[in-house]
Amino acid sequence: MILPRGWENATIGDVADTVLGKMLDAAKNKGEMVPYLRNINVRWGGFDLSDLEEMRVTSDELGALSVRDGDLFVCEGGEPGRSAIWRGGNQRVIFQKALHRLRAMPGVEPEFIAKHIAFSAATGAFSDLLTGTTIRHLTQVAIKRVELPLPPTAEQRRIVAKLDALTARIARARAELDRVPVLAASLRQTSLRDAFAWNAETLPDGWEWKRIDEIGAVQLGRQRSPKDHQGPHMRPYMRAANITWSGWDLSDVKEMNFSPDEFEVFSLRDGDVLLNEGSGSAKEVGKPAVWRGEVEGACFQNTLLRVRPDGYLPDLLRYALLYTALSGQFIANTKGVNIIHIGKGGLSKSKVPVPPIDQQTALLQQIDRAFVRADRLETEAARARKLFDRLEAAILAKAFRGELVPQDPNDEPASVLLERIRAERASAPKGKRTRRSASS
């Protein structure tokens, strides 16, 4: 890449002193107990200090590894490149070997380095520098080799200020987008509540409360057994993992042997309403879906309950059961400890309001429209998030090409800055250089 006037090609090793943290070894570590930063404490652009642990360190280690303002910490593994700048003041806090500390040389803005590291991580620029297969690592040698287009000091500050202003706007927009799923869920729940939140005194004329087993036959699915994993009558079957809050997930459909008699009992028909019978989480119990022949010849297993409605539109019944589940009514009547079950009996005696058949289509369309609006909101928000991601990446790319802020011919060139850094390092006391080198 052709650099703008006054810029120079550099590496992180050229412009910052790098140190890998202290190894945690309870048997060998000596000294006093001191809090330390771990990989998990470093987030993108900030720190989570809610669970700092401690290790023993000597006074020399404390002096060499204590944090101070402007220190840039970079994750060595896990999510290589995840980084944040310490702005909590000089403290008796050190850092573990899972982190690199970058201490920028005078004239180099740590924020500029941090933003370039984030950009490099997001664009895969670290790929050739990472080691390991299952767990990737950004080693001490590798991080020093990370390339950095270096502008003059004053331009670094202008770039950082401009990026902060632009990314703050994007962050506010993302925060608004993050509210969309909550708004969409509220829209769905309001439509369900308007349709089904009745009691005996307020039930509309012509409506009535009915038990589920009065609406249609309730059936628990077939028990699964290892001996049924093969046989002459293998059939696809639905299980709890195939039902989500929004319908069917058919990405992983399994098969087992159903005899002809079993197939008669447990095969699915168009319009069957199924819901998951139990879960380890109370919030997951009762997810319903309507079967529309998505998989030919499918049956269902005993983690699901089936209702075959008569006189109640299947999709409207699905909404009624969805409201029952989301409003916590199934949870109130479930049984079990580790796994919470509705049970065939529990579903059979559950009651839902039943509108007259001639009103059901209009009510179903009303709820459908609300759900479509909610789905559209979420789709548009997801599309906007992707646009913001691309916009942020484009802004960063523009910044590191020198196109985000104007150049000033009066700025001291980066070449002069690099020469000064080299001279400062060359003139540093031998002991200081040796100690720094040993740490890194």
Pick out its properties.
elongated, 24 strands, alpha+beta, 20% strand, Adenine-n6-DNA-methyltransferase TaqI, Chain A, domain 2, 440 residues, 4-stranded antiparallel β-sheet, disordered C terminus, 3 domains
Task: Describe the protein.
With 440 residues, the protein is of the alpha+beta class. The protein folds into three domains: 173 residues, DNA methylase specificity domains (Adenine-n6-DNA-methyltransferase TaqI, Chain A, domain 2, Alpha-Beta Complex); 97 residues; 147 residues, Adenine-n6-DNA-methyltransferase TaqI, Chain A, domain 2. 40% of the residues lie in helices and 20% in strands. The chain has 14 helices and 24 strands. The strands form nine sheets. Strands 2-10-7-8 form a four-stranded antiparallel β-sheet. Strands 13-22-18-20 form a four-stranded antiparallel β-sheet. A hairpin with a 2-residue loop joins strand 15 and strand 16. Helix 5 packs antiparallel against helix 12.
- Quaternary state reads single chain
* N- to C-terminal distance: 30 Å
Q: Number of helix segments?
A: 14
Number of strands: 24
CATH-defined topology of the largest domain: Adenine-n6-DNA-methyltransferase TaqI, Chain A, domain 2
**Major β-sheet, in short?**
4 strands, antiparallel
Radius of gyration: 31 Å
Whole-number average pLDDT?
Answer: 92
> Uncertain runs with pLDDT below 50, 5 residues or more?
432-440
Strands of the biggest beta sheet: in what spatial order? 2-10-7-8
Overall CATH class of the largest domain: Alpha Beta
Determine the CATH superfamily of the largest domain. Answer: DNA methylase specificity domains
Structural class: alpha+beta
Task: Quote the beta fraction.
Answer: 15-25%
Helical content (DSSP H or I, runs of 4+): 40-55%
Number of domains: 3
Based on CA inertia axes, which overall geometry fits? elongated
CATH architecture of the largest domain: Alpha-Beta Complex
